[in-house]
User: What shape does this take?
Amino acid sequence: MILFPNAKINIGLNVLEKQTDGYHKLSSVFYPVKKLYDMLEIFPVKKFSFSSSGIAIPGSNNICVKAFELLKGDFDIENVTMHLHKQIPIGAGLGGGSADGAFVLKALNELFKLELSIIELEEYALQLGSDCPFFIENSPKYITGIGEKMMDINLNLSPYKLKFIFPELHISTSEAYEGVIPKMPESDLLNLINQPIENWKTIVKNDFEISAFTKYPQLKKIKEKLYTDGAIYASMTGSGSVIYGVFVN
Assistant: This one.
C-alpha cells in the first residue's frame, strides 16, 4: 500500500491560555495542502522494519513506528515494513510528522480490516500528538482545545495559488511558546475566517509571529515580500518557520 501524507497550514492561530498541565489552549483553522506530501509505503511482513529516505528524520523511534506499536498493542496484527520518503520539511509548522503518524493508523486500519471508526482513529491519533487527529479526515477544520476539538468548516482555497517559502531555519515548539503571552482575541477566529479572504490581512493573525519575527527578522521580511509580490494573505504556519502566501490565480 502506498500513501501520500500531506501537509497542512494554519490560517490564524490564537494562543488562548496555558493549562496547569503545561499544554496551551488554542484556536486555529487547519487546511490540508494536498500538493505537498511525503510518500509512505507499507505492507505486511514477518519481521517489522522501518526505513526512510529524503529529508533526514531525527531519532529511530519516530511517529510512524509509534503509530504501529500503538495499534499492535491493542490488536493482533501482523508485522509490517514501512518506508517513508520524507519531503515535507521538519519543524516548519506544516504538520508533516503528524500526517505520517495519522496515515499509518489509517493504513493499518485498512490493511488489517480493523473497522475502526473515524472517532476511534482520531482517539488513537491524539495519543501520537495534538495535530494528528486532523489528518484522519484530512479536511478543513476549526480547531480548539489543545488541538483535539475539531469542527468541519466550509473553506475552499482551490481557486487560489499557495506559495511557500522555506527558510533554512528550525523553530522548536518549546522555543516558539517561550515568547508568546496567552490572551483571548478580540474576535472569534471562526467569524473572521468567514469574511472575504481579502480582509484576512489585517484581522487573521498567528500569535507566534510576534516573537518569531522579533528573534528572526528575516521571517518578517519574507512575509512582507509575499505581500509586495501580490499575495492577498500571507502568514507563518504553526509555530514556524515556513511562511505561505495566498495569491489570486
